[in-house]
Automatic annotation (TrEMBL):
Entry protein name: Adenosylcobinamide kinase
Organism: Nostoc punctiforme FACHB-252
GO MF term set: adenosylcobinamide kinase activity; cobinamide phosphate guanylyltransferase activity
Membrane spanning residue stretches: none
Gene giving rise to this polypeptide: cobU
Keyword hit for Heme: no
Leading EC class: transferase
Gene3D superfamilies, A to Z: P-loop containing nucleotide triphosphate hydrolases
Amino acid sequence: MGKVILVTGPARSGKSEWAETLAMESGKAVIYVATATDNPDDEEWHQRILEHQKRRPQDWVTLSVPVELSATLADAKPHTCLLVDSLGTWVANLLEQDDQSWENLVVEFLETVDLVAADMLFVAEEVGWGIVPAYPVGRMFRDRLGSLVRRLSSLCDAVYLITGGYALNLTVLGSPLPTSKDLIQN
């Protein structure tokens, strides 16, 4: 199994830049897995995507994967480093899934992550630190992303929180919470 790293934090905190730094330091061929799709009618979104593209080295391969993330990870070669940016966008792309379908996708994703021989870096937004969203779809997004990040972190070799201009390695500074599986076994 390859190394699995999660980079999380608030908007504009430098999550992607830190993940890009770690990808470069891997010494492996980097495949940038973009979960966002460009919308030329949304100038601000288009500019954000261009900002990310300009930072990437020319030799990185970019794949646009708005939905089929597990299949893309499963196809990765051991000598590569996949940088998935971002899980929040992936969750947003799949909000129309009912709860059972979403759970099936999450289980498939986590099982795939656990088996892939390539290094993988995941970028995820922290969305649960503010007010509770007023609309059901906002609450669903926040809850699904928060749960996904927590479940993924239990498979990670390192989890970084980016805030205030610093990358904090939570796997060094913190203690993992027990998973529901741990609680059932005890």
